[in-house]
């Protein structure tokens, strides 16, 4: 019987593909270590995100491939992760130092739960083990300070803004600095200047993901953002009703126009489960998010139910993924976060994007 060696294990692993990236784990450099002790093999896999939704599938595939080798009795698979940077290849835009991925959370219409989704996705990614920041770019109605509170308030050191901290994430919002009602009267150039300052003067530190909560629509903030940094991807939040979907499509098309990958759609307020009888009511209609996702060829990252705990948690500064982590709503947010992280991993191994023309604000 031929000897069990590291090379033979790697050879056996070569046909095993990452299910999202459709490339060999070996070729992607994801097999970090192979340790052989007698008939026991231990394989250390480095995932492209700690929030990988396919961890168990990868474990099974690796185990099966190694177990098929003659002389192997036990296989142990361990995991670590290293998030790769997406959004390179746009030389006209400077990445934020230390920030690997920037994710814009957008909606066409106000009130669909975009900020709620941004907060819960950001905290869910941190709970999975990623380093995460959240920038509230909704300067017209900053709601992040209310939804998250802050264990540490933002501060100023050597003319650099140090973000606040809440639930393990770095967080910055104009709402920590100004009376939110004053922010509502801001106009175009000032808003663009503030956004640029948030992108350049906030000391985010090393982040796997910076989640950016945008104002609704396609205005100055969106344009400033896409023209200042190489945005890694956008998530569109919508409710299932037609009027919200029509606006969501506009948002989706704007990101496509500026060659920002749309990671997918999160359908919020998808259904309500009666706490008394368990009846599922589709208050805002059904299937809208999926129809748009299919039509435009983007994934439906998740469907979040209407849950009073979401609103209560938001009003108390405790996101539902923290306040009720075992609930099906928290589970739905975590799954959406994992799907978004997986899409970003796919973007990170793709070829660099081509630079795009600068757009002018539509007035
Ligand atoms: N799934 C949900 N279940 C129950 N309440 C929700 C849900 N999602 C959001 N809400 C509530 O709906 C209200 C609006 O949500 P949010 O502020 O996140 O929307 P938005 O799209 O960011 O709004 P805007 O962009 O206009 O500021 C909030 O009170 C929030 O707590």
TrEMBL record:
Keyword Iron-sulfur annotated: yes
Keywords: ATP-binding, Hydrolase, Iron, Iron-sulfur, Metal-binding, Nucleotide-binding
Claim: Protease is one of the keywords in the record: no
Positions that bind ATP: 108-115
GO biological process: iron-sulfur cluster assembly
Domain MIP18 family-like: start-end pairs: 6-77
Single GO molecular function: ATP binding
Function recorded in the entry: Binds and transfers iron-sulfur (Fe-S) clusters to target apoproteins. Can hydrolyze ATP.
Family assignment from sequence similarity: In the N-terminal section; belongs to the MIP18 family. In the C-terminal section; belongs to the Mrp/NBP35 ATP-binding proteins family.
Subunit architecture: Homodimer.
NCBIfam families, A to Z: PRK11670.1
HAMAP family per UniProt: Mrp_NBP35 (MF_02040)
Protein name: Iron-sulfur cluster carrier protein
Annotated source species: Thermomicrobium roseum (strain ATCC 27502 / DSM 5159 / P-2)
């Amino acid at each position: 019987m031929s000897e069990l060696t590291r090379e033979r294990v790697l050879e056996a692993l070569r046909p095993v593909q990452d299910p999202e990236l459709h490339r060999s784990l070996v070729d992607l450099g994801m097999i970090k270590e192979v340790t052989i002790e007698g008939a026991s093999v231990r394989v250390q896999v480095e995932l492209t995100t700690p929030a990988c939704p396919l961890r168990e599938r990868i474990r099974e595939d690796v185990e099966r491939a190694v177990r098929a080798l003659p002389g192997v009795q036990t296989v142990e698979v361990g995991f670590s992760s290293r998030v790769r940077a997406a959004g390179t290849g746009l030389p006209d835009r400077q990445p934020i130092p230390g920030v690997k991925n920037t994710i814009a959370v957008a909606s066409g219409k106000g009130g669909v739960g975009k900020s709620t989704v941004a907060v819960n996705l950001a905290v869910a990614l941190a709970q999975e083990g990623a380093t995460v920041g959240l920038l509230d770019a909704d300067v017209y109605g900053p709601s992040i300070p209310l939804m998250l509170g802050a264990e540490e308030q933002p501060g100023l050191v050597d003319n650099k803004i140090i973000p606040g901290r809440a639930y393990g994430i770095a967080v910055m919002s104009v709402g920590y600095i100004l009376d939110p009602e004053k922010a509502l009267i801001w106009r175009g150039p000032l808003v663009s200047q503030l956004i640029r300052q948030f992108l350049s003067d906030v000391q985010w530190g090393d982040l796997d993901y910076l989640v950016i909560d945008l104002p609704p629509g396609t205005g100055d903030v969106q344009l400033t953002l896409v023209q200042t940094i190489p945005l890694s991807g956008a998530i569109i939040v919508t409710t299932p009703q037609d009027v919200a979907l029509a606006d969501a499509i506009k948002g989706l098309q704007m990101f496509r126009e500026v060659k920002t990958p749309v990671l997918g759609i999160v359908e919020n307020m998808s259904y309500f489960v009666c706490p008394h009888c368990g009846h599922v009511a589709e208050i805002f209609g059904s299937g809208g998010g999926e129809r748009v996702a299919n039509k435009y060829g983007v994934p439906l990252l998740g469907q979040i139910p209407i849950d009073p705990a979401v609103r209560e948690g938001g009003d108390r500064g405790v996101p539902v993924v923290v306040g009720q982590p075992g609930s099906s709503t928290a589970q739905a947010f975590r799954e959406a976060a994992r799907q978004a992280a997986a899409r970003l991993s796919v973007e990170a191994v793709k070829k660099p994007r081509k630079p795009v023309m600068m757009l002018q604000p539509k007035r």
